[in-house]
Amino acid sequence: MSALAPTVQPHMPEGEYGEPVIQLTAARKVYRSGTIEFEALRGVDLEIRQGEYVAIMGPSGSGKSTLMNILGCLDTLTTGHYRLAGHDVDDLDEAELAEIRNKEIGFVFQQFNLLPSLEAWRNVELPLMYGRVPSHERRARAERALERVGLGSRLANKPGELSGGQQQRVAVARALVAEPTMILADEPTGNLDSVSTRDVLGLFDELHELGRTIVLITHELEVAQRARRIVWVRDGVIADPAETARAIGHAGPGGGAAA
Amino acid sequence: MNWTETLGTSWAAVRSHGLRSLLTVLGILIGIAAVILTVGLGLGTQKDVSSQISSLGSNLLIVSPGSSTDSSGVRGGFGTSATLTAADATALDSDVNAPDVAGVAAEKSTSLALEANDTNWTTTVTGTTPSWLDVRSRELVSGEFITDDDEASSAAVTVLGSETATELFGTTNVVGQTVTIDDRSFEIVGVLASAGSDSSSNLDDLAIVPLSTAATQLIGGTDSASVSTIYVKAASDTQLAAAYQEAQTVLLNLHSIGSADDADFTISSQNALVDTATSIYQTLTVLLTGIAALSLLVGGIGVMNIMLVSVTERTREIGLRKALGAPPWAIRRQFLVEAAILGLTGGVLGAVLGCGAALLLPGVIGSSIVIAPAAVALSIGVAIAIGLVFGVYPATRAARLAPIDALRSE
To answer: How many CA atoms lie within 13 A of A24 on its CB side?
Structure first.
């Protein structure tokens, strides 16, 4: 494999990275529906350090979406502990979780999730608005973020006037604008053609070079291989290195989804 | 997210569904218009009644021939029989029998053509006594009123209403001029000051002549002693009831009638006018208040309904905003403000409709409607409050949406 090939060491980072950003310990998540219980996460330990570029992979139903919701502070654990950038997330209420999401996490979604009625820069400034940044400062920062993703000329365009790739770049700008601790991307290329996919992944590479922490959830091996580390989730747990290597091998280069 | 931004966002949401928002606020619109009309009608009625009372004098009793209550079915119609005479008026003026009566004026009226300098004008010619001026609380702009001497000698003198004078001569400065009434020449001795008009007649278009002159020269009829109306002025407002009793007793005695139920005359007071006006106003108030309350309730439910639709439609947006860091209170505030804007829109449109109707309706229904700025402001406030109250449930529902469920929705 090339020098860019990711490590398959799933639980712990290797090498030169900084302080831990994500520390997940014995994480369990149980969903109840009436009398039926479903254990989506069955004891997950995971550490991600400042500046890492990690891909979380796994077949559907493996628990990777649950993991993404936990990491994104969109949901809380049933048992276990989650520390994000020094905050204990387990005991926070809705409003406190909202503030953590606002300050520490930049989301990129598969469906872009831009508000169609707002111009690009207004979409980008949303996290700043909820972060109570004064309005004169917001516009400047939103413009800078859009320039950063190469959309300096499309500030005033509404999402409907932009291509899919451009929309996703607006979403990346929105994820960057509040300078969050980590960028959490959920299938960011799932709705993009191959050109736009390359475009957005290139952007992630650049951000990684600049020292950003990036966590990418995907089921596409090609996409995951752009990351420096792959975490393979199966049946609610993180697979060991050997199994991860095997799973990636099975998916094969260019094999796409590991169903 | 500060208030300005919340307002901007919510206003954009309301505007993006213009027609839907308009239909939603229809109930509130009608309710607010009804409130403004109710208050306006109430104030208008008060104004009408008080101007009517001031134009006639609040302590005035009006004695008319005939009976307005026809329980036995034998007496003649109201105002048609000639059962009142000048003698009745004289009797009512007695300090012994009617101590609470301050003044009495009998009237004998008919419509006649007046002519001066080839100009014709038909008006009400009223024969009455010198006491009329005081009893009816009127004043003169120039000249004098008819005197006891005029009355005694059946003099051919007249006092004109200001409008009558203007119609005939083009000016009210006509004292000393001559006017022809029914082919007889009358000298104009005075002109009445303007008093406006009440509900039934123009108080400025009339010609006053001495009662005796009217009886003998102008209004013959079968009984020259009969009069059409006797005005009785009580000494004060508080003595009105006593004056009423005295007048009734005097006239019943004089007409040799045993029971008030069989009276061949009717005594009415300004209170009766007030009562009629008030009862009409109360009926309208109950009706309009009912409409207003129902409309506002329906309007509120409409706002709640459309807000629930709006929350459902925008579940994904809510999820996104929450993911980006919107705390629950910010989401709640956004939807509450949206509901309040709907209420405000309904309130403002309702105020416009109400004020428009208040300007146009008086010409149709004949009673004045006063636009009270305080009532308009207050009802717009009420409309906003309705939006807020009925917006609480949808907004709370939006605030409680779990971000993951919201993001996942299509």
So the answer is: 26
